[in-house]
TrEMBL record:
Residues 72-106 form a coiled coil. Keywords: Coiled coil, Signal. This is Uncharacterized protein. Residues 1-24 form the signal peptide.
Amino acid sequence: MKLSYCTRGILLIVLALGGQSAFAQSESEIPVRFEMRETDNGLVRLDTRTGIVSLCTNRLQQLVCQPSIDGIKVYEDEITRLELENTKMRQELRQISEALATLTEKASIAAIKSETALDLSSTAPQEEGWFGKEEEKKLSDALDFTENAMRRFFSVVEEMKDDFQKDNAE
């Protein structure tokens, strides 16, 4: 097959540029992306990363490469895979958002209920119960600590919900 002067020039430039970078690195460090072989119909180019084979021909003084049908199928399959992954991630995000909304609603209800709950502090008059006064004090302190922790937690959940809604609004 005869190559035009332009095609030969392009190949020489590619080889020259590739040769310069070869001096900078050892041959084993340079990953070869494409392998090209000359055929009767033009050049066959193999993409060593994807395995796609293309036929390159000289058209109007330019080297034009057309991927094989198998190569096009590889791209279409990857697009389909990414679309399915995108759909799955959107569904998971929707489920997380719904769970967060439910959790926030339950937290709000729990916070309202805890405000009207019984006062178990040590200042309230207490009858003699299961525990002595020292144990009642420890229990009261533990409940106060738990209540404060829950209020902080639900406050953080509210902030996350607000941030999430702001991000979705933008």
